Structure formats: C-alpha cells, structure tokens
Amino acid sequence: MVLCGCRRGELTGFRWAGADLDAGCLTVARPILQFGGELHEEATAKSKAGDRLVYLDDDTVILLKAHRQIQEMERELAGEDWQDNDLVFCQPDGRPWNPDHVSKHFKLLAARAGVPVIKLHEGGRHTGNSLLYDAEVPEDIVMQRIGHASRDMNQHYNHPLAERHRAAAEKVAALVRKAGETA
Questions:
Q1: What's the predicted TM-score (pTM) here?
Q2: What CATH number labels 8-182?
Q3: How confident is the model over 49-59, as pLDDT tens digits?
C-alpha cells in the first residue's frame, strides 16, 4: 500500500483475475468497503481516474508470488470451508478482510515497530504519494499511480521528506551564489 499509494478498499479488493505478475501489475476494479458493519463490494473503482493498473516493483512481485503459493496451501487446508472470492489479500478461509481490521492491524504493527502510530490512509496513500515525488517521479505518473484526476488533490497528498526541503534550500542558495559571482 505504501509503495503503491492505493486506498485500503482497493487493497482489500485486489483480485487474482486482475493480477498480471509477469507484467508486474494489479488492476484496481472492485474495492471492498464497509458500511454499518457490513462489507460491501463496489461495482467499480472510486472514480474514473481510480480505475487503473497499479505497477509493482520486482521485490513486491516476488513477495506476491510467494503469497499466492501460501494462499493455495490455505485453500487446501480450508477445504469446503474456503470461500472463493478470488482475493489477493484475504483471511485464511478466503473471506475478505474488513477494511477497518486492516487499519487497526496497521496501527498495531506501527506501535510494535516503535514508529509513530498514524492512520492507514496517511501511512499508505499520503506516504506513497510523497515517496513518488521524493523519487522525482513525474507528476502525471504520480497522479495515475495514486488514481487522482486533479493536481490540487494530488498536491494535498504530497508531504516531501525533510531531505527534499534541504536539497531545495541548497539549490536556491547555489543559484544566488552563482548570480552573485557573475554580478
């Protein structure tokens, strides 16, 4: 989620049918949301821009291939109790994860790791968006990866690392020094 900047409903709704691990991508298609304690599968992505491919790095592809093998073993162990929802991320019996559970588990992992406990949305989408900018990925690619149609919304999610701010300060200072040398 952090590397891709996807929404938690997108994460819980990724399907193997929309996964092309040879090409290194997942399809955002039918997010799983929660309303009044009940899980609800959306018919489409949140927006037209949200209906997209999420491209993965090589290490994540390797992890997902291993995850799929483990999931196949879980399917065999569950036998008739397996609920086949074709979900990439599901409970050991195939049922979908409640997005609220995923958020709570994220906070638990953060606390155990001794890092600041923040909302999954901030830790996932905001951090993912910021990392893309810090890696100097072009804005149009960032917007496509995150699923934003508006530059304003995309900038709302951007929180550059302090190193980027320091680098910007150094670039401005160097420009002023250079101008002073030629004057």
A1: 0.69
A2: 1.10.443.10
A3: 557 888 888 99
